[in-house]
Amino acid sequence: MATPALTSRVLNSSLAQRIMSADEAAALIGSGTRIGMSGFTGSGYPKAVPLALARRISDANLRGHKFQVSIYTGASTGPELDGALAMAGGIHLRLPYQSDPETRKRINAGEMDYMDIHLSHVAQYVEYGFLGKMDWALVEVAAVLDDGRLVPSSSIGNNKTWVEQAEKIIIEVNQWQPAALEGMHDIYYGLEPPPNRKPIPLVHPGQRIGSPYLHVPLDKVVGVVLTDSPDRNSPFKPPDEASRRIAGHILEFLGWEAQKGRIPSNLLPLQSGVGNIANAVLCGLEEAPFENLTSYTEVIQDGMIRLLRTGKLVSASATAFSLSPEMLAEVNAEMSSFRERIVLRPQEISNHPEIIRRLGVIAMNGMIEADIYGNVNSTHVMGSRIQNGIGGSGDFARNGYLSIFMAPSTAQGGCISTLVPMVSHVDHTEHDVDVIVSEQGLADLRGLSPRQRAKLIIDRCAHPDYRPALRDYLARADRLAFGRHTPHLLTESLGWHSQYLRSGRMRSGGDN
Ligand code: COA
User: Fold this and answer.
1) CA-CA distance, 125 to 190, in Å (whole number)?
2) Phi and psi at residue 496, in whole multiples of 5°?
3) Tell me, what's the pLDDT at 238?
4) Per-residue pLDDT at 65 exceeds 70
5) Measured between alpha carbons, how far is residue 78 from residues 37, 329, 351, 493 in Å?
6) Ligand 1: which residue has its CA nearest to atom 3?
7) What is the mean pLDDT of the chain?
8) Which residue puts its alpha carbon closest to atom 6 of ligand 1?
9) Is the pLDDT of residue 13 over 80?
10) How far apart are CA 510 and CA 493, in angstroms?
11) Where are the alpha helices (H) located in 314-388, listed in sequence order?
């Protein structure tokens, strides 16, 4: 039986009649269905029905009945969703981004299909019908108003699309989410499909152009489940020496760009990717001499909250919170103080190429590896094993004013050089990459030919242990390649990777 405190979050009497348990809701979902779920970087994902569905799937499997569903989300979620459903063997197809270890294991074992899609593309791919009919929307919200509009929770992701496109809807109302989230969201309802699409009227990161509420066709809602469960994001590691040095190089570079008048003194709107290096850059900004910063990005991280508190950051636009557990507790307690300065939008708007290009976003994203010509691999270890996914990095890198990729110069205790002759998988081509940074230094590739880029990347970014081998490769390729525009020795260019797979250590000089 729901407590009065919980039911006070469901003010619409018709939807209140549809309150049911998570097990009852999960029992409505059939095998073979496609479900659009809320959730973006461990925030705002449904927490009770996926667990109940995973139990149901495990029971079916024990009885010898194959039961699988396809799961579409905003991006990564939490253990109660990806972890539980993957563990039960319940996911047939997953998209568009995920970072759960069990799901990663199963995708790389070939037991689960995964489609890695630009985050800005997902909503329109579904609306255009490229990804099949949506059977279910399963969406967490903070509250239901008396007229049936929904107050979104700590992420928006693709929720607008899921509730519009799905045949049936299940809503999880999570009392753990602060009521003060009401008013923080901005859901744009003006995107028509081509050829009727109009310009999106957003010209400043903090601008609001839509509604704070999700509008949902009430007749499609078949169940409302009450929960009281926390979001679960991973804690950030304190920035290590390499991350601090990478951050230092980027901030020095941005300072020079401002001095040269190529960007304003308060910079341009910042996009900061996932992970510890991105957070180190934000920490570095606390000490840097920039004021009145803005951010147009995907996720609000710990560093952004600190910048908002000191007033260095004046407004932040994203689609989700991605906070450490400690910061999350603090922010939830003071949510109303951020309501004017944080805007959460659907990811098709937070990552929209038109807006990223118009605002002139400075995009900073992590990478697995880059090659000497500036092609970047963000997703695949040794060319075949997916780590997470491209996420929004392509949306921002392709369309930003400045596209920066960053990584330590080595991985796995120095056995791997992250600067290689040729990347083993390409997510961002040389045409979309302006700057590469490692703890060794920064290579500004703008205006350089491929051979000039190669020299600079090796000199500035490669680890000294790998520099001679990279120089040797470039010199021999320059003599012996089929063409000298982008010189490569095709029998050697991926030899560093195959050497690592054979011996556990990358070496120069090819396969033999
Ligand atoms: N070769 C092999 N393994 C590598 C590697 C390389 N070149 N570079 C990193 N790795 C390994 C690390 O050793 C680590 O392995 P471990 O888990 O066994 O320790 C793992 O990959 C993760 O590396 P780490 O340095 O901890 O990653 P990170 O947290 O800084 O994230 C990315 C780096 C690239 C994985 C991450 O930024 C990402 O997923 N990017 C794509 C999506 C994106 O950019 N989203 C933002 C858009 S808003």
Assistant:
1) 17
2) -65, -40
3) 82
4) yes
5) 12, 17, 22, 38
6) 381
7) 95
8) 368
9) yes
10) 7
11) 325-333, 335-338, 347-350, 353-359
